[in-house]
Design goal:
alpha+beta, Nonspecific Lipid-transfer Protein, Chain A, single chain, isomerase activity, 10 helices, 7 strands, metal ion binding, 2 domains
Length: 265
């Protein structure tokens, strides 16, 4: 199970809870580093996800299939809310979301596949890593300086915070862009991530015309992409240019199309 994921989700949520009382009304309305969203909109996004986790809405075929546009829609629904209303929703729903994710670590349901519209299918226990990624990434990259507008600090990221976020990203990597990303991988590529959250995996081409690429543990290719895991969270979500944060060894032409296309949501 991914108990590290629930621990990371709780820890990053606690960090956000430390930040919230330090933000004033003017700062909540500053543009975040997430394009089109204010700082308060980032919290509205997390609050919306929490509310949907604890009280799932009925299926609606008119909702956007693109996950990013779906998130924009949910944020837009809350743009007329006061800061206090957004924060109240986040405070009310997030503890219940965390408890549900913790319960999802227990058999027999922990390995049950769960489809996340626009993102793929994951074992239920891995949904804790989804939250660990979301809160960590938005807080550290979009809200706080140096990339975000808030001049506030938190303890340096640890392996326990970063590794579960990276685990979700790697689980989602073959699924989120499907054939579009698969088409860019003609030969195996190694992702060599260092620092907190360090891991090494090989991205393998699809084995058939209708298949998708796969991600396997270890290094099994001569072309390698070297980056810190922290930077991976930023550039693999297209928040920062990969060329500023990656070093390629081996055949760069084999890795460049993949890196140009990758966009973890």
């Amino acid at each position: 199970m991914t108990r590290a994921g629930i621990a990371a989700a709780r820890a990053s949520t606690a960090h956000l809870a430390e930040i919230v009382p330090q933000v004033d009304d003017e700062q909540w309305d500053l543009p975040s580093a997430c394009a089109g969203w204010r700082v308060i909109d980032v919290v509205a996004h997390l609050a919306a996800l929490a509310s949907e986790a604890v009280d799932p809405p009925p299926p609606d075929p008119t909702l956007p299939k693109n996950r990013e546009r779906y998130h924009d829609l949910r944020v837009d629904e809350r743009r007329g809310w006061s800061h206090a209303q957004v924060l109240d929703e986040w405070r009310r729903s997030t503890p219940r979301q965390l408890d549900l994710l913790e319960a999802a670590q227990e058999p027999p349901g922990a390995d049950e596949p769960v489809g996340v519209p626009g993102l793929g299918t994951y074992p239920r226990h891995l949904l804790a890593n989804t939250m660990a990624f979301n809160v960590f990434c938005h807080l550290r990259n979009d809200m706080l300086a140096p990339d975000g507008p808030l001049p506030l600090t938190l303890p340096e990221p640890t392996d326990g915070l970063v590794a579960p976020a990276v685990d979700f990203m790697l689980a989602g990597l073959p699924q989120m862009q499907g054939p579009e990303l698969t088409a860019t991988v003609r030969r195996p590529l190694v992702l060599d991530l260092t620092g907190p959250g360090a891991t090494t995996v090989t991205v393998l081409p699809a084995t058939g015309p209708d298949g998708l690429l796969t991600v396997a543990p270890g290094a099994d290719a001569t072309t390698r992409v070297h980056s810190t895991a922290l930077d991976f969270i930023a550039w693999a979500t297209t928040r920062k240019p990969w060329r500023d944060h990656c070093r390629i060894t081996g055949d760069a032409s084999a890795a460049t199309p993949f890196l140009d296309c990758l966009n973890i949501i």
